[in-house]
């Protein structure tokens, strides 16, 4: 281009997300985990056995946003990728307990800290994205979804139509992976007047 030989590459950083030639997200996930672990290590060195409340503030403000940036675009399909992402949160929840041999298990720490798993957070992010697109009429996103014109088992009037797909990549695209969760939401949740009310009603399910 203009006399310059373009470099051939299998992956490219685009708006903070690494996209590769196979449209898989493992390269991006590796990068995200590395960055999040580096931040977690710095926090661990800076705070010796912080309280639970301090740990939550540090994690939610500095580490979790890295793990969740642009989550609606990318999705950890492989179990190994899901487990590696979750391991970052597991390590962060250990900060208040140090090397205590009697520290609570990970599931117990989640209850103590009122933290959902990262998978549950990703599902929550998808339904919020869907709500904004369909209920708030986002013109850039509204056309991503196809509403079901009629259903004998209709739960609400914004029920999605199942999309046909041929590839795993399309199967895990946001419009497909959110299908079951969104269609099962109660009418009062989907009909929330704004995003904050929707979040509150969804979280109370």
Automatic annotation (TrEMBL):
Protein's UniProt name: RNA-directed DNA polymerase from mobile element jockey
The species this protein was found in: Zophobas morio
């Amino acid at each position: 281009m203009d006399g310059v030989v373009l470099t051939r590459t299998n992956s490219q950083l685009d708006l903070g997300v690494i996209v590769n030639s196979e449209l898989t997200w493992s390269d991006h996930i590796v990068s995200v985990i590395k960055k999040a672990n580096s931040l977690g290590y710095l926090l661990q060195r800076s705070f010796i056995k912080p309280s639970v409340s301090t740990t939550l503030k540090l994690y939610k403000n500095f580490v979790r946003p890295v793990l969740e940036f642009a989550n609606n675009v990318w999705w950890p399909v492989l179990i190994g990728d899901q487990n590696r992402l979750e391991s970052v949160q597991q390590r962060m929840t250990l900060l208040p307990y140090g090397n205590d041999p009697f520290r609570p298990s990970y599931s117990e720490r989640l209850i103590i800290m009122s933290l959902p798993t990262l998978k549950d957070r990703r599902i929550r992010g998808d339904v919020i994205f869907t709500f904004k697109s369909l209920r708030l009429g986002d013109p850039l996103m509204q056309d991503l979804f196809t509403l079901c014109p009629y259903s004998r088992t209709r739960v609400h009037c914004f029920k999605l139509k199942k999309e046909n797909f041929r590839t795993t990549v399309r199967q895990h695209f946001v419009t497909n992976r959110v299908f079951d969760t969104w269609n099962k939401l109660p009418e009062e949740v989907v009909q929330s007047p704004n995003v904050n009310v929707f979040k509150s009603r969804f979280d109370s399910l």
